[in-house]
Amino acid sequence: GVVLGAGKYAKDALVELTATESNPQYRFNNWTDSDSQVVSSNLQYSFTMGDEDVALNANYLENPYLTINISPLASGTVSGDGYNVPGASVSLVAEPLETTYFIKWTDEEDTTISTNSTYTYTMPSEDTVLFAYFGNKNHVSIGTHTHGTVSGAGYFGPLDNCTLTAIPDEGYMFKEYQVEGQQLTTSNPYTFLPTG
Questions:
Q1: CA angle at residue 79 from 82 to 19, to 5 degrees?
Q2: Which of 26, 13, 138, 12 is nearest to 3 (CA)?
Q3: Which residue, 95, 91, 77, 93, is CA-closest to 121?
Q4: Is the peptide bond before 96 cis (omega within 30 degrees of 0)?
Q5: What is the pLDDT of residues 148-168, one digit of tens each?
């Protein structure tokens, strides 16, 4: 941090000191005198200058660090890691990729603390590691087809339905959907839950 207000003062002058918390790695603790006695725990401290020089120390404590690991690696992005004051409310945000979905937050003991992708975590007094877990979405693709278009393919989470809609060209009609050469359904549109 940075301390403002130090310098030369005349006797009986009002001295106003300010300790700043410009570095998130540290938080202000207190002011102490040359005998290591605490004179104030406030960021701002004022006193009247006496006959002698005064030496004060602005004391800081290191904040704990929050580490967030992503599993599997490169399966999404997270925000919220870094230094935080103990007891602070830390906003954790997990963003899956197009091909993945968020599963849960866990602690170092693999205990689930939330299944919401956005979660407010209370920072403890020690360094902490959390894990953000993602899963792979099921991929639905459409094979080669002629005389029309099909919409609805893409990536789907475990609870997401896929709806395929075939639009035949003029002069043609929809016949069926097939999987590996076998008829799947003659319904159009066709809605289903992809399972792999």
A1: 35
A2: 26
A3: 91
A4: no
A5: 999 999 999 999 999 999 999
